[in-house]
Amino acid sequence: MRIHKVEKHDTLWKLAKYYSTTVDVIGRLNGLKGTQLHRLSIGQMLRIPDANSAKPDAELKVKFRSMDFKTITPKKVKVEHDGKEEWHVMDKADHLLLSIQDHALGLKVWVENLNKEMEQVLSHEILPIGKWNVFIDSRKVKADGALQPKRGAPASSAARVKAVTSQNAQLKQGQAAEEQTRVEAGKPVHAVATIYTSANLRLPPVNEKYRELIIAAAEAHQLSPQSLAAMINIEAAKARRGPNKGEWLEQSNAHDSSLAQGLAQFFPAGWTDVSKDPSSLLHKECGNLNNGALMAKRRVARYAIDGAATYAQINLRNFSRQSRYPVDALPPEDKAKVAYILHHDGLTGTMMLVGLEPPMSRTRARNKLIGQLGGDAEKADRIIAQYDGNSFNAYRGWLFVSVASVPS
Questions:
Q1: Distance between CA atoms of 64 and 272, rounded to whole angstroms?
Q2: 207-217 burial, b if ≥16 CB within 10 A, otherwise e?
Q3: Prediction pTM value
Q4: What does the pLDDT read at residue 58?
Q5: How many whole angstroms separate alpha carbon 262 and alpha carbon 234?
C-alpha cells in the first residue's frame, strides 16, 4: 500500500492512470463516493494499492455441507483458479475464503472423502463477478443420515422440488438454496441450487422477469447476457422506492414520444435504425406498422431488449469499420463498455472521445456534462476545474469513470 499526497491539478483519473489502477479501486480504498470522487483537496492523503494488489473479480466464501444440512469441515481441500492450484488444510475452520483475480478462468474444488481420496465437488468454467456465499453439498463427504426409501404417497415431484429450489436461490441473490424431501414412491430427492443460475447471469429479483428475454437477445446477436444486462441496467429508468425498488421501468417516458423511452432509452432516430436492421425482432415482426405504432414498441420489453442488442452490434460494426479497430477481439466486458459509449455518444462522438477525430468544442462538452449531471452547472464546473479547465477532457473523464463502473 502506498500513500499519495494530493497536489494541485491532481484528479482520481490522473492518479489511476499514473499508478496503473482504476478510479473505482482508489475510491473504495479511501471511502470516496458520489461527488467525493471529483472533489480532492490539496494535501489530502490517499491510499493507493500496490501494482500487484488489483481488486479481484470475485470474492467467495465457501462452506461445505453434508446431506443433513449441517456444515462440515473436510480435512483437505484442493482448489484451482487463476491458472494455479492450491491446497488447504481446513483444521477447525468452517469456511474457505477465495480471492479470484480472473473470473473467466473459472474454479474447481476437490475435497477429501471418507476413503481419503480427493473427489471433485465443484467445476465452473466462468464465475460471476462480485462477492458471493457458496455452499458445496456432497453426498460422499459424510455418510450419516436416514435417507432410505420408505412407503407413502409423494407430497410432490422431484421436478417440482428442484424448480422451487432454483427459484428460492434466485430470490436469495447469491445464497445457495437446498431442499431435501421424499417424493415419488418414497424415494429421496436432494435438490441443490447454487448461485450459478441460468446462463450464469445474476439479476435482482425485481428484474428476474427479463432473464429469458436477455438470454435470447444476447444469443441472437452474439453478445454475452452479462454485457447486455449491464447495458440495460445503466440505461433503464428504475423504481426509486417501495417493494419494487430498482425495477427497470418498461414504460419509461410514455407521456412523450419524442423522449428516450423504454428499457433501453431509445430516441426515435436510434429506434428507426433498429427497425431497418434485418436481424432485429422489430424488423421481422413490426415492419408493416405505421411510425406511431412502431415508436410505441420502444416500451415493450421484448423489442427493447432485442433492440438494445441489435443497436450495440450496429454501432460496433460501424465503429470497427471506421476506426479499423478489431472490436470482435475484445473480451465481452470491454466490448460492452465500447457498445455503451457508442449508444451514449454515437459513432462521431465516440471517435472524438477515443482520439480518432478532433474533439468537440469545449462549449458543447460543457453543455453535455451539465446535461448528464441533471442540469447542475456548478457541479460541472467543479469537475472541469479538476481537468485544468478543459471541459472536453472533463466530460470524457466523467464518462469513462461512469463506464468503468458498469457491472459486466
A1: 53
A2: beebbebbbbb
A3: 0.51
A4: 78
A5: 13
